[in-house]
Amino acid sequence: MLELRDLSRRFGERAAVDSVSLSVPQGQMVGIIGRSGAGKSTLLRMVNRLTEPSAGRILHDGVDVTALSGRALRDWRTRAAMIFQQFNLIQRLDVLTNVLVGRLNHRPGALATLNSLFLRFSPAERAMALEALARFDLAEQALQRAETLSGGQQQRVAIARALLQEPRLILADEPIASLDPRNARVVMDALRDVNRRDGLTVLVNLHHLETARRYCDRIVAMQAGRVVFDGTPATLTAAEVEAIYGVPEEALESEAPRAAAAGAIA
């Protein structure tokens, strides 16, 4: 169980996240929606402790994540794997090595540093990485440089890398924002497969409401740093959507294809 208790983050006078409280059972897939600047990314980064909370607590299975430091904090970041919009792969390295990077925190400190310098991995770890790539239809690209892959392929490599961390939860920050509709679908299918097959908790920030409805068990909507809706996709009404986004739901649906086309062109 992941619990956020009155979690806040202030930047000067501005509250990016304002007293958010959520309880997320293990194995749930939660879509976090809202306009740009609503606090979605800041919230996920606080869960991983990439951004420090100004107030409140984060607990996971009774452990106070906000109190962790040193090795314990590094272990938490391994268990709470982050997936970013821009993939965060090492472009000059091959796909297999990028996935294997997910194993580095499973070694003792000095050994992890040495192995990261020389990129040494065991046969068992290489087998794990190849299995993860095969799972996402990327085994044939294992020895290609990451920079040769499409955006959708690179995001699936990032998911495979996250799995090699052996996490308890996955935090995906706008993972399909820069992808065309076909690749967005493939990446969301991969995240849902990880959620269903591995039983991992998935928190995913999404711009597209229809994607959240299609893939997520639960939708949390944020506005000005606060949670303004928390429920199942079926209970999110048109009136609530308009209150969250400031426009009718039909307008959002008409904007989505244009936004996706612009992303594909870029």
UniProtKB/TrEMBL annotation:
SUPFAM superfamilies: P-loop containing nucleoside triphosphate hydrolases (SSF52540). GO terms for molecular function: ATP binding. CDD domains: ABC_PhnC_transporter. Keywords: ATP-binding, Cell membrane, Membrane, Nucleotide-binding, Translocase, Transport. It holds the Pfam family ABC_tran. Residues 2-249 form the ABC transporter domain. InterPro entries: AAA+_ATPase (IPR003593), ABC_transporter-like_ATP-bd (IPR003439), ABC_transporter-like_CS (IPR017871), ABC_transpr_PhnC (IPR012693), MetN_ABC_transporter-like (IPR050086), P-loop_NTPase (IPR027417). The keyword Membrane applies. PANTHER family: AMINO ACID IMPORT ATP-BINDING PROTEIN, PHOSPHONATES IMPORT ATP-BINDING PROTEIN PHNC. This is Phosphonate ABC transporter ATP-binding protein. It comes from Muricoccus vinaceus. The gene is phnC.
